[in-house]
């Protein structure tokens, strides 16, 4: 692994690693979305930013149009992410979203947070749940390592 890959940067054979970024359907908070897009681009990612108020159907369309995407990143600050992600299980089951889904932000309404909120997100098909945006480069790196390992296994098996 190169030093660049170890640092969480994102070059790979054939170009930059691509991620899809957006804010959950009922959420119009744009500042964090733009800051995250900027930070990912500064790390070398190709970021397809769908912006605010993005329904699952638009994330699915973006995944279908970009089959090389490595992750879908969904932010939510209004706390209604559970309702906004209600169509995620169907999109994943239909193969419209085949990459890992990462969610972060304020993930429930009210000041009290509990583990059941996170369990509900996992039940909807969320693969990674972030406590802070600072965790994102590490999670993306882990996804890349798993993907490279899977691709190596497929090559070895053929």
UniProtKB/TrEMBL annotation:
Family matches, as Gene3D superfamilies: Cobalamin-binding domain (3.40.50.280)
Domain of life: Bacteria
InterPro entries per record: Cobalamin-bd, Cobalamin-bd_sf
SUPFAM superfamilies associated with the record: Cobalamin (vitamin B12)-binding domain
Ranges for domain B12-binding: 16-151
Name of the protein described by the UniProt record: Cobalamin-dependent protein
Source organism: Streptomyces olivaceiscleroticus
